[in-house]
């Protein structure tokens, strides 16, 4: 790796005398009686003022290796300026460490290397760039090494100063660079088999453009469509007022890596050995997803997973506070696919107060402990069976124990048949209306799922593991493409109590793409008796996507046509037929009255009375419980026009779409900033 010493100019000290001579001749121009030599210099400079040399402006880049190909990516302007200031700060600059990318990466200036702060990632080379050439395939500018850029700059300076062009240089890789004039500089790749004694043979092939400086090279917006860069762009477009008023800072996104350590066990290699070669992409997706599910359902691996996730979340949070001691914002968490289920299980096992975590408080099965819960004595009084309280007290049977009792147990305690039936019915109903409903289980099955040593059973069918505690209380939990609903159902849960909420997290959003094969809804588990659609996530540019509006328009039009046609046919049929009996006529009249509103044209008053309840029905508040503080939980993205042509074709792709989706990012930003009282510049329709 080659780079110039800190603080040196690219021109280099050897050529500074050339520059000073030009400057002295300029100063000499102020003499009212210039010498012939100086006047000739004056004439030369006056003829072409643009030939005056100005040092090149630099910009800092880092190198990413993607698919075995090096791609040079510019630092943003602020980071580049910080690196440049550190570079020119003096002799100790090589020991400087400069935080970049919002503090997510540190650049070690002397090494010219960029290191990830919060996660493991191969370090990347950093370069102070001044000269570039266009690549052979992607047409992007590639920076020369710092040492060769210095040679190019010195040659350019001489050419400008002396007005001597057509300079030819050979790079360390035997590439030929020709400086024809300030606006025409080209680069030739070495040609195999060329004559190494002559230069003409190496100037073959299509010349590539050579560029000095970063002017007209986009250095602030580059093609990295990740969650963080999308959010930074949306801040500029949707929260501009709040930014200008300095009401908000940016939202930082830090990844939690639990997947890689889990898959370093060698199981992946064994699985690949038995995987069929056909439909490779689908099988890879299946292996990757299903293997994690099997891992998570194994007690051994499940404990490893929850420990890894929680410890990483705590480590990253602690490290972030160390590096940002002034931070006073909130923390939200997001999980994708199985990751969302892991977070859900961890959150259901948190404790509201930072005390002993080996407590079952806050789990879904103990939701009945929240609020004013009647005692056993009060329950029996309500059933008018108070006289049996002493029996239960004598046998040390509390409400939980009573919920586990069979009819035979009550009979052995001397409870008569009538009261037995009442008690069993009452407490069976109560058990089914706790945090979740589960299928009926025998006493032995329930007993076997009680606490086992230090491990907890949270009552929702999770593997019995010890769930770690997070060092903070998340504001909001976002689930992307989440199978939480499916897992809860398979675990035996039929209903989530509307009063249940996470012990330490106030908000919960279940966000999914309509074609995502891994995603399931949550709200129907809270309100199973009501059918309603999920919330449609607005397009980040406002309104619905055009094809969805067209589809709805065509649907409405076809329904209107259908209803009008049916109404016309009915009128025609009525004009040709008469009911022979009053009973039939009455029945027909009733049928017409019920069906006529569908026609939409015969009796406007009847249509309006029929339509009004429909609108009211849509506006009625839906009780979706307290998981999201009483607000809606399920949010569905709008599919793109091309995706709507073939749902199956885009199914796998839709499961991975969330990290690049502007609509998803905007919803996340909107909800996070709302916790601080900050709203969008303009509400989306």
UniProtKB/TrEMBL annotation:
<dbReference type="Pfam" id="PF00536">
    <property type="entry name" value="SAM_1"/>
</dbReference>
<dbReference type="InterPro" id="IPR004170">
    <property type="entry name" value="WWE_dom"/>
</dbReference>
<comment type="similarity">
    <text>Belongs to the PA-PLA1 family.</text>
</comment>
<feature type="compositionally biased region" description="Acidic residues">
    <location>
        <begin position="589"/>
        <end position="599"/>
    </location>
</feature>
<dbReference type="Pfam" id="PF02862">
    <property type="entry name" value="DDHD"/>
</dbReference>
<dbReference type="InterPro" id="IPR057825">
    <property type="entry name" value="WWE_SEC23-DDH2"/>
</dbReference>
<dbReference type="GO" id="GO:0046872">
    <property type="term" value="F:metal ion binding"/>
</dbReference>
<dbReference type="InterPro" id="IPR001660">
    <property type="entry name" value="SAM"/>
</dbReference>
<feature type="region of interest" description="Disordered">
    <location>
        <begin position="584"/>
        <end position="615"/>
    </location>
</feature>
<dbReference type="InterPro" id="IPR058055">
    <property type="entry name" value="PA-PLA1"/>
</dbReference>
<dbReference type="Pfam" id="PF02825">
    <property type="entry name" value="WWE"/>
</dbReference>
<dbReference type="InterPro" id="IPR004177">
    <property type="entry name" value="DDHD_dom"/>
</dbReference>
<dbReference type="GO" id="GO:0004620">
    <property type="term" value="F:phospholipase activity"/>
</dbReference>
<dbReference type="Pfam" id="PF23464">
    <property type="entry name" value="WWE_3"/>
</dbReference>
<feature type="domain" description="WWE">
    <location>
        <begin position="46"/>
        <end position="128"/>
    </location>
</feature>
<protein>
    <submittedName>
        <fullName>Phospholipase DDHD2 isoform X7</fullName>
    </submittedName>
</protein>
<dbReference type="InterPro" id="IPR013761">
    <property type="entry name" value="SAM/pointed_sf"/>
</dbReference>
<dbReference type="GO" id="GO:0030134">
    <property type="term" value="C:COPII-coated ER to Golgi transport vesicle"/>
</dbReference>
<feature type="domain" description="DDHD">
    <location>
        <begin position="470"/>
        <end position="674"/>
    </location>
</feature>
<feature type="region of interest" description="Disordered">
    <location>
        <begin position="1"/>
        <end position="41"/>
    </location>
</feature>
<dbReference type="GO" id="GO:0004806">
    <property type="term" value="F:triacylglycerol lipase activity"/>
</dbReference>
């Amino acid at each position: 790796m080659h780079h110039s010493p800190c603080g040196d100019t690219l021109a280099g000290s050897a050529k500074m005398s050339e520059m000073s001579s030009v400057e002295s001749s300029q100063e000499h121009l102020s003499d009212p009686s210039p010498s012939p030599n100086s006047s000739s210099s004056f004439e030369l400079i006056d003829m072409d003022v643009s030939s005056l040399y100005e040092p090149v402006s630099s910009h800092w880049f880092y190198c990413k290796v993607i698919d075995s190909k090096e791609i040079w990516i510019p630092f943003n302007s602020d980071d580049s300026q910080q690196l440049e200031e550190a570079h020119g700060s003096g002799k100790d600059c090589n020991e400087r460490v400069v935080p970049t990318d919002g503090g997510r990466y540190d650049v070690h200036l002397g090494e010219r290397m960029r290191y990830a702060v919060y996660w493991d990632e191969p370090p990347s080379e950093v370069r102070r760039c001044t000269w570039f050439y266009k690549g052979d395939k992607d047409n992007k500018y590639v920076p020369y090494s710092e040492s060769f850029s210095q040679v190019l700059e010195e040659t350019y300076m001489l050419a400008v100063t002396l007005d001597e062009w057509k300079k030819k240089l050979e790079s360390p890789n035997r590439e030929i660079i020709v400086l024809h004039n300030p606006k025409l500089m080209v680069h030739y790749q070495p040609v195999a088999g060329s004559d190494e004694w002559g230069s003409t043979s190496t100037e073959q092939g299509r010349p590539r453009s050579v560029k000095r400086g970063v002017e007209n090279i986009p250095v602030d917006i580059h093609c990295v469509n990740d969650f963080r860069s999308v959010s930074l762009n949306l801040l500029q477009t949707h929260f501009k007022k709040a930014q200008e008023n300095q009401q908000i800072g940016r939202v930082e996104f830090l990844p939690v890596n639990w997947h890689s350590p889990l898959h370093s066990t060698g199981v992946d290699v064994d699985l690949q050995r038995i995987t069929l070669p056909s439909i490779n992409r689908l099988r890879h997706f299946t292996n990757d997803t299903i293997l994690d599910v099997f891992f998570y359902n194994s007690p051994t691996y499940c404990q490893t997973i929850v420990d890894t996730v929680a410890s990483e979340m705590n480590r990253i949070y602690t490290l972030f506070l160390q590096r940002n001691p002034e931070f006073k914002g909130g923390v939200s968490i997001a999980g994708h696919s199985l990751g969302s289920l892991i977070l859900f299980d961890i959150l259901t096992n948190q404790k509201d107060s930072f005390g002993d975590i080996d407590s079952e408080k806050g789990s879904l099965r103990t939701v009945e402990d929240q609020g004013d819960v009647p005692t056993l004595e009060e329950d029996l009084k309500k059933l008018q069976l108070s006289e049996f309280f002493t029996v239960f007290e004598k046998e040390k049977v509390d409400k939980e124990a009573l919920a586990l009792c069979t009819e035979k147990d009550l009979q052995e305690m001397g409870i008569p048949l009538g009261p037995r039936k009442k008690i069993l019915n009452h407490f069976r109903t109560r058990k089914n209306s706790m945090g979740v409903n589960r299928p009926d289980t025998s006493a032995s099955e329930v007993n076997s799922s009680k606490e086992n040593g230090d491990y907890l059973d949270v009552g929702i069918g999770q593997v019995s593991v010890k769930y770690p505690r997070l060092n903070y209380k998340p504001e909001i939990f976002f689930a992307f493409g989440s199978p939480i609903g499916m897992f809860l159902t398979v675990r035996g849960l039929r209903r989530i109590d509307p009063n249940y909420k996470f012990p330490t997290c106030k908000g919960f959003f279940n966000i999914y793409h309509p074609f995502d094969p891994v995603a399931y809804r949550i709200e129907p588990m809270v309100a199973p008796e009501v059918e309603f659609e999920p919330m449609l996530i607005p397009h980040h540019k406002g309104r619905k996507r055009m094809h969805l509006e067209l589809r709805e328009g065509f649907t409405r039009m076809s329904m209107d046509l259908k209803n009008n046609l049916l109404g016309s046919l009915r009128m025609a049929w009525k004009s040709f037929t008469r009911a022979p009996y009053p009973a039939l006529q009455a029945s027909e009249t009733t049928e017409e009255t019920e069906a006529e509103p569908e026609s939409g044209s015969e009796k406007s008053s009847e249509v309006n009375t029929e339509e009004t309840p429909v609108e009211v029905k849509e506006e009625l508040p839906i009780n979706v419980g307290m998981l999201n503080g009483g607000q809606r939980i399920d949010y569905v993205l709008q599919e793109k026009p091309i995706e709507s042509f073939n749902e199956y074709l885009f199914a796998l792709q839709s499961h991975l779409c969330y990290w690049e989706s502007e609509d998803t990012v905007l919803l996340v930003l909107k909800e996070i900033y709302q916790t601080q009282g900050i709203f969008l510049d303009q509400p989306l329709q």
